[in-house]
Design a protein that fits this description.
0% strand; mainly alpha; 105 residues; rod-shaped
Length: 105
């Protein structure tokens, strides 16, 4: 009986150490590769950089659009801009304009 009790104590101790080591290993792996781990942080930093550059591009595009719209405001209409928009929307060309017809595929 003494042998079984000693064997049971050794196996219980070994099982607890194995369980503890498995838990530490699990949390260590997740700390590195998990959703909020070190790799995820690097990927988030790269995504932040990409989205910041896209935001800058979109802000520039919006500013250009606002500039074009401001030229068409009722209080001060730019004649060149008005002429360009009328020609585009009505498919109108001045008699002295050179027009190149591009076939549609």
């Amino acid at each position: 009986m003494v042998t079984r009790a000693r064997l049971k104590a050794l196996l219980t101790g070994a099982a607890l150490y194995t369980l503890a080591a498995a838990m530490v290993g699990y949390f260590s792996v997740n700390a590195y590769t998990g959703k909020y781990g070190l790799n995820a942080r690097q990927e988030l930093d790269q995504e932040i950089i990409a989205l910041t550059s896209e935001l800058a591009r979109l802000k520039k595009e919006r500013a250009e659009g606002e500039q074009r719209v401001s030229l068409l405001r009722a209080d001060r209409v730019d004649p060149d801009m008005l002429d360009e928009r009328v020609r585009y929307q009505l498919d109108y060309a001045h008699p002295r304009d050179l027009v190149k017809i591009v076939p549609q595929n």
